[in-house]
Batch of 4 targets.
Target 1
Amino acid sequence: MKFLCVAAAALATAQAFTTSPGAFTVAPSSPALNNVFDAPGAAHRTRRATIVMDGKANAIRDRISTVNNTKKITSAMKLVAAAKVRRAQDSVLATRPFSETLQSVFGGLIERLGGEAADLPL
């Protein structure tokens, strides 16, 4: 069985290196290929640019996109934090009238008690 595989491989190799003149001629598959060289620059208009990146370029591109995504997340977190601070400031400002009223009430009580030391349960 092994001999048959080796013989078939040798026969295929021998046919690939034939010296007949017909082996080196290539028939065009489409008539449009015949007149590619007629118009100047015609071959360049039909070609598409292919960007081939090695591993480092892909890693750099991925790192750039990662950094950009991190920037977006960080800016969103800053907006959320600013909204929380603003809400906390508003709630502090809203309680200011109540604290002022409490200070005046306690101030009045202290004036009524005078300077005597009283036993207060608090």
Note: The first helix runs from residue 2 to 16.
Target 2
Amino acid sequence: ERFALLSAALCHDMEHPGVTSQFLSKAADATRGRYRDIIIRDALLEKHHALSALKLMCDRDVGILEGLSSTQYYQFRSSVSKMILATDMTRHFEYINHLKEFSARRDEDPAVEM
């Protein structure tokens, strides 16, 4: 989990073009064409960051994931993808509200889990 968190933190803006997802969507940038087959149009840049990071990490010449079992490998990929996608600012307030609700429930009952 820590390795996935650290990896996601390091890669969350990998290959960032310096413009927003909204700008890319409106401009129909060439990057957008890469993802036209993805049903969900949200988090365009975050998808790019996640795919780029995982492509690099899965490269046999890099070898960063070689010691992982099959189960660990798929869990790592899933965790990194989810964490990078969670950096989409269009969902920021949704996440903040979720944390506030969790905190309020936790204050009432310390045994409450996310």
Note: Helices lie at 2-11, 21-27, 30-34, 44-58, 70-85, 92-108.
Target 3
Amino acid sequence: IRNIRNFEKFFTEFDSDNRISIMADSQTKLYHRCFIMFGPVLRMVRSAAATLQHDILFYRPKKVSELPGVIYELVTSDANNQFYTLGLAHSVETDESFDVYQDFLQYVFDHAPFLADE
């Protein structure tokens, strides 16, 4: 968990609009999941005059030993049909989980409420 905490520090210092949340067991310190949102894309979406569409994708890494769990990607597209990664989530759970998906979207809307208005 120390390495991901170091990444968290660097990521948030690099761009003040970057967002990251790391969830770990408070007693064992074992990592469970994280949510990441990219500041430059958030700024673009916030200022865009175009209609934006959002979609979420699921990935299961081919080599489970390297990264067990599921990766969730929230993408947005603009009027020119350009796609941008708005956020990523990772969970150590081995199957797609509606709870993780729901928690991820809640995190996104909590940190970028202007997206919920679209």
Note: Helices lie at 2-14, 39-47, 98-111.
Target 4
Amino acid sequence: RFANTKVGISKDRGADTDANLRTSSAAPATAAAPAAAPAAAAAASAFAVGFAAELDLAIPGLGEVATKAKVLHFPNSPEYVKQVLAWIAEHELAELEELAEVVENVTGFAGMPELPSKRFLRE
């Protein structure tokens, strides 16, 4: 944020006042930029809650498992959820215990990368 900012003290005034500081920047900062990160995080969190609710509708408790496994906060999360739900529907799973027996098949079908798959298996 401050990489392109130069701060100097004016030589014709005393160095002990704030008025002596002058700044110049190659690119002016905008007020909206700092607020964008929290807004994006809030949106991602809202989507994760929605994904967890969808998973819970299919199998009670699955949303909590996916949340603990941290697989609902990534750009590909909507696709993972879609594929997991499709697999569950196709194989008519109804309980977490059933899913636990075939979870490697489900994560493979969903196309989850290795680390999210491991976290999902662990939970």
Note: The longest helix spans residues 32-58.
